[in-house]
Amino acid sequence: MSSKESAANEKIVLTGDRPTGRLHLGHYVGSIKNRLALQEKYGHCFYMVADVQALTDNAERPEKVRKNVLEVALDNLAVGLDPKRTTFFIQSQIPEIAELTIFFLNLVTLARLRRNPTVKNEMKQKGFGENVPAGFLAYPVSQAADILFCGSNLIPVGEDQLPVIEQVNEIAAKFNSIYGSTFRKVEPLLSETPRLVGIDGGAKAGKSLGNAIYLADPAKEIEAKVMMMYTDPGHVHVKDPGKVKGNVVFAYLDAFDPDKEAVKELKRQYERGGLGDIVIKKRLIEVLDHLLSPIRERREKLAENPNRVMEILHEGSRTVRIAAKETMAKVRKAVRIDYFG
Ligand code: ATP
Ligand code: MG
């Protein structure tokens, strides 16, 4: 393979979170596990705190967004993202992303944005109707800029983000067809559990939905949340046969219990009758405690020195900005606005 070809095939990984709250188990199975695997595989990745995107539906709550920048960075460091191999940065500190968004906005129609299933669904959830902030409606456009400005092409995401990645590719293709080949095609990377249900049985655990178990939850709180989990309302007595489908405890055991055979056997017993909810809930509490205890401990240690975490974000933002300036020089040339060189 020539060096040009290998550069074209090179995988650059970008992931990120909106600083709207601490991270939960949905993030862990939907995206973080892949973040850790890709960091091992490719040795170099980008991690972005999407504060500009968080402000699209939190414009009146800047303090909430600011506070959560540290929280999501702490969560990612605690699970094992390593700043030596993954560059941490904050979206708002790269003004070139905003500049690129402006040019991309000309390449999408309002109708197409309104049709994006992710946007449609989140608009409904947030009850925006016709009063949707223009910035929120257009967030897939700014997400295209987030992904493309640093040349990334492999994006670990949860299932809810697939339509956004599709739109990113449309925007890149349109830019390339008008202004010449500039951006590469982007691939989403789904995990084995692309969508973790909420503890209430809701379609997705979400930090804005209040139905999640957080990575930093104390052991007592995890226990209480598991005990509240939706199971099968028809399973009244231990001896009754119970349903596995739609049962949140089994959905979580599928996602987190490393002993798949044992889970299969529990499912068989549950369906036959004779297995109580308490038994499966107790097992899940143990499994989650095993996963989350070390993360919680590391997080508590890291949280003792918030300045160090902010310094990691600051340093990463400075590094990323160099690449951003290079991309924008190319884009300005392509769009024919490089008047002064
Ligand atoms: P918000 O409600 O503020 O949008 P969120 O919980 O959806 O918060 P994001 O920061 O939007 O979290 O998402 C970060 C990443 O985690 C995305 O790739 C998203 O697809 C993934 N993700 C979020 N929730 C889940 C879930 N329940 N299952 C699988 N992946 C998820
Ligand atoms: Mg989201």
Description:
The chain is mainly α and 341 residues long. It is built from 15 helices and five strands. The strands form two sheets. A three-stranded parallel sheet has the order 1-2-3. The protein is globular. The site of adenosine-5'-triphosphate (ATP) has 19 residues, from helix 2.
Brief digest:
The strands form 2 sheets. A 3-stranded parallel beta sheet has the order 1-2-3. It has a two-stranded parallel sheet with strand order 4-5.
Question: What key attributes describe this structure?
Answer:
341 residues; mainly alpha; Rossmann fold; Tyrosyl-Transfer RNA Synthetase; 2 domains; three-stranded parallel β-sheet; two-stranded parallel sheet; globular; binds adenosine-5'-triphosphate; binds magnesium ion
Provide the CATH superfamily of the largest domain.
HUPs
What's the rounded overall pLDDT mean? Answer: 95
Q: Into which percentage range does the β-strand content fall?
A: 5-15%
- Tally the helices: 15
Q: Any idea of the CATH class of the largest domain?
A: Alpha Beta
Quaternary structure: single chain
Small molecules bound: adenosine-5'-triphosphate, magnesium ion
Task: Look at the helices and sheets and give the structural class.
Answer: mainly alpha
What's the SSE blueprint?
Layout: H1 3-9, E1 13-17, H2 25-42, E2 45-49, H3 51-55, H4 62-79, E3 86-90, H5 95-105, H6 110-115, H7 117-126, H8 134-137, H9 139-148, E4 154-156, H10 162-179, E5 187-189, H11 219-228, H12 248-256, H13 260-272, H14 277-303, H15 306-334
Parallel strand pairs: 1-2, 2-3, 4-5
Adenosine-5'-triphosphate (ATP) binds at residues 17-18, 20, 26-27, 30-31, 157-158, 160-161, 194-196, 204-208.
